[in-house]
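Re: the 274-residue chain
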Amino acid sequence: MKIFKELLPYLYHKSRLSFYSNKHLKKPHPKKEIPVIVSLTTIPSRLEVVYLTIKSILAQNAKPKKVILNLHKSLKNSIPKNLKNLEGEVFEIHLSEIDCPHLKLVETLKRFPKENIVTIDDDQVYPANFLKTLYHTHLENPNAIISNIARLIKFDKNEEPLPYQKWPYVYAHQISSKFLLPLGVFGVLYPPNSLNEEVFNIEQMNLLAPKADDLWFKAMGLLNDAPVVITKKTLHPITILNTQEITLKRYNVSQDNNRLQWKKLMEVYQIAVK
């Protein structure tokens, strides 16, 4: 039953996106454009299918200024034709020295520090009103980090972080807390100056949170006192089939490494519970 729940929406959206010509998607649409840059990265096993994620963003009701796929330089000669065919004024592929999940944001943030940057995951197809929803919430909360969904980081009586699986999901303005953790898979909008300059400290990033980009960015937001606001309507992306063989979830959640990485971040950056 689960496979059908996942398969049917995926096939529908894949079919929907197939009707958009590359020529149409590559063309800027100034009248529909909103001031956001969409940024992501991917891994070798998803290079052949990440074009579906890209197309779902290029086909949005509200068009981004730019879409940037950040890749490690070792993938330069492995870029498939279905990605190259989308390159143009809006979509670009940027090669980087960095090779980690944090590449989804840090490279674009360094290049465009004054822009609103929306991060997405490479294994999802996003609904057509995804960007418009994030951006409208941003207009109401211009200094906040905007997320479609979050988890609430929870602590025990000794102010030690509980296991990640005990951090509850939070939807649509249910609560306000400095420990709301934006979930990158659902899309997150970072306005300028919402993350501390320490976000570019690659050595610390790889030491403290090598597999937890969401946690690294959360800590950097706390260092700048950036609040997190959740959209009023949660938009659920659709997972691309056969992309979950290699995921961070197994490392971070099943082995409780999210909790351990968050504990390190709190200790090093002196993040107080109260």
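The chain has one domain: 21-268.
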